[in-house]
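step=encode ok
step=design start
structure_in=
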């Protein structure tokens, strides 16, 4: 083979000639002059050290070398087009892989509503999901072991991270079905002060724990803690078992439990007091991380769960 490079343009011209069976027909289809096409194919044949066509009075037919080149040429052009598309998608954040951490609460509404949109709009991004707790996932995002995470908020600002509120929610009271308050349509939190509370873990969910305790103090009492848990689903299950009562995000009602009653609070401070936050490192906002964020953001501004970016 000659040291002269074979280019994709020549391979495309070669295939068009093979399909048309003549240089004239190929030149018309390619919108170039026939002499220029002939020069280009002679250059290709020189590079390959082989004649690709047998010239006939009424056109050309492929030579054995030409037949050998057809499939390879088609494959090379297909791979080149695939590479072009991949680069274009990657340049716009629509190609690659994304590892997303999430807390269990995100499976109630944020993920079921956002992931179908994401998969439909960005089928070339491979998504891996990993469940975890908020503090662990914050550290994993910092260390690039996760590209992004859906965590429980509020959380303190972090200089290494950007965070967005993708869902805001109220706190409501969860009580066993046989509890004296279970027949009420709504209650003031102060009415629950005599109860024993199932509380969120100080180690794994300190932010949500602090919000709950602050709500109780604002209502005039310090909660008596009987049991701790990490995930909201676990807290609800423990309430169903009769271990105590709990403050939970209102989205917990999306998965009803016949042994639990969910009671809205009249306390104004409980409104939009908790959230699901999307976090990522500062250097990933224009990558697939940003594409996923667009799909997780609520579609109707002004409705519950309206998004906003935090100070970072």
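sequence_out=
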């Amino acid at each position: 083979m000659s040291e002269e490079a074979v280019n994709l343009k020549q391979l495309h011209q070669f295939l068009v000639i093979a399909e048309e069976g003549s240089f004239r027909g190929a030149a018309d289809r390619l919108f170039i002059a026939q002499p220029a096409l002939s020069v280009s194919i002679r250059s290709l044949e020189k590079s390959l050290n082989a004649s690709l066509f047998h010239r006939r009075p009424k056109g050309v037919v492929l030579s054995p070398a030409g037949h050998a080149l057809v499939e390879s040429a088609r494959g090379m052009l297909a791979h080149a087009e695939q590479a072009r598309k991949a680069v274009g998608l990657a340049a716009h954040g629509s190609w690659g892989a994304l590892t997303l951490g999430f807390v269990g609460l995100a499976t109630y509404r944020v993920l079921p509503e956002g992931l179908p949109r994401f998969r439909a709009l960005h089928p070339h991004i491979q998504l891996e999901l990993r469940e975890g707790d908020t503090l662990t996932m914050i550290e994993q995002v910092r260390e690039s072991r996760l590209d992004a995470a859906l965590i429980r908020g509020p959380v303190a600002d972090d200089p290494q991270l950007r965070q967005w509120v993708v869902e805001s929610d109220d706190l409501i009271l969860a009580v066993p079905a046989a509890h004296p308050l279970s027949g009420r349509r709504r209650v003031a939190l102060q009415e629950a002060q005599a109860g024993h509370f199932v509380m969120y873990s100080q180690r794994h969910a300190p932010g949500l724990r602090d919000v709950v305790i602050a709500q109780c103090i604002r209502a005039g009492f310090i909660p008596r803690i009987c049991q701790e848990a990490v995930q909201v689903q676990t807290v609800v299950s423990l309430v169903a078992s009769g271990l105590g009562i709990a403050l939970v995000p209102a989205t917990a009602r999306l998965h009803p439990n016949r042994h639990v009653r969910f009671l809205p609070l009249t306390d104004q401070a409980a409104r939009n007091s908790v959230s699901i936050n999307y976090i990522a490192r500062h250097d990933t906002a224009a990558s697939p991380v940003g594409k996923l964020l667009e799909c997780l953001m609520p579609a109707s501004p002004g409705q519950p769960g309206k998004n906003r970016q935090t100070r970072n």
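step=design ok
step=annotate ok -> The chain is about 35% helix and 25% strand.
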